Task: structure prediction
Amino acid sequence: MNPIHIVGRGAIGSLLAAKLVNLDRLFTCEVRSLNNLPKTVLNLDKSVTRLPAIITHQPNILDDSIVIVPLKAYQIENALRDLAFRLPKRASVVLLHNGMLDRKAIKALLPNHSIYLATTSHAAKREGSQIHITGTGTTQFGLAKSPHSPDAISTEIASIKSLFTRLISPVSYSDDIDQILWQKLIVNAVINPLTAIHNIKNGVLGDSAFTKVIMNIIQECIEVASTLSVQLEYTVMSELVRSVIQNTANNYSSMHQDLKNHRPSEIDYISGFIVSKGKENGVDVSENTRLLDQIKRLEQANENHSK
Ligand code: PAF
Result:
């Protein structure tokens, strides 16, 4: 079995840590600061898992480790820069976040390691010093790049799949991770800014008052994706968005929670990504631009408030 290393103790990092504790699996975890870390996880069955204390910021990462990086999109580049000189040769890295990153920059940061991209709809949120698991979901991952042989890559994929199956199942490996990430991006481009701007739970987006704006967002995103050679169907995307809204009706989106708690949001990697790729490729992205601007204004208001 590969050693496991988790970067950060946010909501999803803690969810993974709790699942490992419940399975009696040893793992290491690194954090930027030892202050104010969550201590327990409230599982869906109402049982509570105590998270192991972290006594050192950066424990050694063992050879052959699966290194899971479940951070906010805006934290990933710095985290990888920091990991680059500490990763043992045969470690593989799995990035698990909302939004789209600059793939070239990420690849350049870890030229000698396999990087996998993953997305999960398992959900958790922080309440004081406890993380609450708020829903189960599905997980998909795919390879971004690897310097290794096809055989070595197959072994890595099998190990990651087997690990994730025990933690955040059901899990599937996709040869076309871009399709999957774009689908998740569109779900986030609809739900996250709208719930944060209107201060609502995800389920309220099922009201007919939101039908038009949701349609515009999805259409713009699909056009941008197609200029980047990712083909998505409007009806499929609209159905996916509708089902996520329904399945997470009682949740507050991560962006809603970020703004409520005066944290920076991932808007630059969600609507910001769509707007910048749209402008580069001559696509009308006015709806996404409006949302981007509104979230930026809310972030600014939060910043002014805390000065
Ligand atoms: O960011 C989030 O909150 C989640 O990715 C999702 C799927 C929108 C549900 O709230």
The chain has two domains: 4-175, 178-306.
